[in-house]
Amino acid sequence: MSVLRSLFTAGVVATGLFCSLPGISAPPADRWEVSPQRSPDAACQDCHKPDAQGMHGKHAAAINPNNQLPVTCTNCHGHPSPRHREGVMDVMRFGDPRFSVEQQNSVCLSCHLPQQLQKAFWPHDVHVTKVTCTGCHALHPQQDAVQTLNDKGRINLCVDCHSDQRNNPAFNPAAVRPLKAHP
Question: Gene3D superfamilies in the record, alphabetically (predicted)?
Fold first, then answer.
């Protein structure tokens, strides 16, 4: 036992001496740069490819304001576990009632600031805690239909959803799907 302790002590001392020598210490942190070896979306797109070009819409060319890199599948949906294909609820599924409104919207609000959304259209302020963002917005279309609506179309959209809420006792705001846009 004392032999092992002596060897361990000698190793610690030698390591300390080696690292304290000038020019032999670890390189400065800013000297090394880690770069991804493959696309963070590669595993997702193996199964969930809308087409050969991948994701559509504004998110396809968006830059994540948190890290200044292109938005990836995992930025919004998270990292799947090995049991993902078995239906384990590990990645964010927007419009899925198993995820609360707060869980779903917290993903959107990690990039989209509430103040900017409220300035863009006042109902954002009222609905951000009550209805999922995907209740009105489609995430991967060529063009989000809600953003093409004129004032009359926006009013019709509101009336349709609020009518459904009044007439449906099982209304679940976490499961609201984007409604068809009215011209």
Answer: Cytochrome C3 (3.90.10.10)
